[in-house]
Design goal:
Number of helices: 9
Helix content: over 70%
Distance between the termini: 33 Å
Number of domains: 2
Shape: flat
Largest sheet: none
Structural class: mainly alpha
Number of strands: 0
């Protein structure tokens, strides 16, 4: 298992966004997903990374073998939807890997070395903590509702949409608002508004593995853009 500097992770996200914008969906998208899968596995996020890669492979096979067999509105709708999914999937997959393998303290220490303004660092730091907390609350809500026999399946939503909205989505919205307030209060308590430069005991520095990963992603990006 390896560790990568948080600054390199941010650069990798920017490179992936550029890749999604300028490189057409095709073979290079599969190569990029494979690289993200290897990176996520080496960073220790094995199960979720492999699961995301399997979902992408299933969608890709569906687009190649099943989508051409469809006609009319179904074909056009799925074609547009899959095109959007294939464009956004590399960015979302890499973002999940980075958020899941980066601690808030590491991120803050890395951004302090970049001397970024607090107006940029503070929202990003809260975002890194917000989504995992929201996901945990979502799991608690689903477990509580499953005890009452309320499911999140599409079939149950079609049968009883009002019950699903009242029992699942409304509590999630309330929880999301409370979580945002709690995280903001926690950040203020920890002195995030202190104007002094932050110190850290973490060893944040760019190593050979960081340069190697960045070089590989950059080369694949250049090949995809120019070829």
């Amino acid at each position: 298992m390896i560790k990568i500097d948080p600054r390199i992770k941010v650069i990798l996200i920017l490179i992936t966004v550029i890749f999604s914008i300028f490189v057409p969906t095709g073979l290079y998208t599969c190569i990029w997903i494979a690289m993200v899968t290897v990176l996520g596995t080496m960073l220790g996020r094995i199960k979720k990374t492999i699961r995301a890669a399997v979902i992408f492979a299933a969608l890709w096979l569906f687009a190649i073998y099943i989508l051409p067999m469809l006609h009319g509105t179904a074909h056009i709708s799925l074609l547009v939807w899959l095109g959007l999914v294939f464009k956004c999937y590399p960015c979302c997959m890499l973002a999940g890997v980075i958020i899941g393998t980066t601690q808030i303290s590491e991120f803050m220490a890395a951004m302090a070395k970049w001397n970024l303004p607090r107006e940029i660092v503070m929202p990003l730091a809260i975002m890194f903590r917000y989504f995992p907390t929201l996901k945990e609350d979502w799991g608690h809500i689903k477990d509580a509702m499953s005890i009452r026999g309320i499911s999140l399946s599409p079939l149950y939503f079609i049968k009883r949409p009002g019950v699903v909205i009242d029992a699942l989505y409304l509590p999630l919205l309330v929880t999301a608002s409370k979580t945002a307030d709690e995280l903001s209060s926690s950040a203020i308590t920890r002195g995030i508004e202190n104007p002094s430069r932050r110190t850290s005991r973490l060893d944040i520095r760019i190593k050979y593995i960081d340069i190697l990963v960045l070089t590989i992603f950059t080369l694949v990006l250049l090949l995809g853009v120019f070829l």
